[in-house]
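Predict fold of Thioesterase; 252 aa.
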Amino acid sequence: MTVPDTGTPWLRRFHARPGARLTVVLFPHAGGTANFYREWATGLPEGFASVVVQYPGRETRFGEPLAARLEDLAAGAAAALEGHLTGPYALLGHSMGSLVAYEAARRLAGGPLGPPVRLFASARRAPGREGPASGVHLLDDDGLVAVIEKLGGTPPGLLDDLDLRSLVLPSVRGDYRLVDAYRPAAPEPLDVPITALAGADDPSVPPAEVDRWGDLTTRGHVLEVLPGGHFFPVRHRAEVLRVLVRDLAGAV
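Predicted 3D structure, encoded as tokens:
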């Protein structure tokens, strides 16, 4: 099976896999774009296709307003997937993308697609375990850039360019605002197995906290700790893909 040409701004596909039997749906981090996952498409083995969620307000959707709620991102992505996806699928989100993927899974489970075969949650505390709001979206531009650089989201000095800041920071600030506002009182466990992925040296969320995703599944979970900080998938993409393929082996 495969994902047809989407015809929707919510989904991007970088590499066609007409014979694929399972599709991995990828959700970017706060301020992230579909291009974060561009190289993942060719890193997956035969039998796997990928499609990437593109949030409004960036790249191909730059002229659109940012989402008002994190749940709006999940609802938009879920509706697009229901219109364009067939066959088995898995969801993988990095950082904020883990929360959006979880909310999308909740919506998709009761629809025509049914639940994903697995959820991969990377570098994020589970819903209901977030703790106090960070207030990062309230920082001035220099403070916001300092947070991004500390997490490894951009190379040091890249966002010294004011024109680039004007393109990047609005979506980063908007997404941090969404995460701070997202505080579900009683998150629902999914009837979906979960793989929790953590960076061994992540300064924002330690592996023990990422492991709490196990509280949100009735089907069991595993924790995989990989080398690196918050953006460990950048340098260790091959290891992430290895875990993904391993944990989806029985679904294709």
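The mean pLDDT is 94.
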